[in-house]
Amino acid sequence: MVQATPFLLVLFLALGAHGHTVKKCILTGHWKNDIGSNMTISEVKENGDFTGIYNTSVSTTTKIVPSPLLGSQHLPYLWNQPTFGFTVHWNFSNSISVFTGQCFVDNDGKEVLKTMWLMRSYVGKLEDDWKATRIGYNVFVRQETHEGGKVEFPEEMQ
Ligand code: BTN
Question: What is the DSSP letter of 107?
Fold first, then answer.
């Protein structure tokens, strides 16, 4: 304990000092990506879990409906620019998309989410497995709102 105390003190000071100079990147709120898709992330729970709604601008189908997302992040009080991941369960197709990324604050103080995704589409037979997965990259920027990140879930999702 005697040996651990100076170490913990240094760690605390390092994290504390860092926290004062670097703006934290917060996932909660409204985001738009480079292809015009919108995403709203609700409040992140104490353990890093979060939920939200994804409204994609593009689809492999003709219909698009806002769809629920379920994710988890490393905690922002430990890391100012946390890594995260989430799954989107598309309500209008039989695909699933998973995103993984990091929440950064750029040199102008603006938050940006750098993500990569995998999308698994349904195929009817094993022989078609080879063409069932797509991969891509999306960058999200925060949409200014006056609602403080409060998520209004559509009735069918409540
Ligand atoms: C589907 O086509 O079956 C569901 C919609 C998939 C939308 C994809 S997910 C990755 C990429 N980023 C987006 O914002 N939309 C597309």
Answer: T
Ligand 1 center from residue 113 Cα (angstroms): 16
Q: How far is CA 13 from CA 6, 19, 75, in A?
A: 11, 10, 18
User: Could you read off the pLDDT of 5-56 as tens digits, one per residue?
Assistant: 555 444 444 554 444 557 899 999 999 999 999 999 999 999 999 999 999 9
Evaluate whether 70 touches 48 at the Cβ level (below 8 Å): no
Length, in residues, of the chain: 158
**What share of the chain has pLDDT > 90, as a percent?**
72
88 with 69: CB under 8 angstroms? yes
Q: pTM for the whole thing?
A: 0.81
Q: Say whether 156 sits in a helix, a strand or coil.
A: helix
Interval between CA 96 and ligand 1 midpoint (Å):
9
CA-nearest residue, atom 9 of ligand 1: 97
Mutate to test the pocket of ligand 1, among 31, 37, 53, 91 (most ligand atoms within 8 A of CB): 37
Euclidean distance between CA atoms 158 and 67, whole angstroms: 12
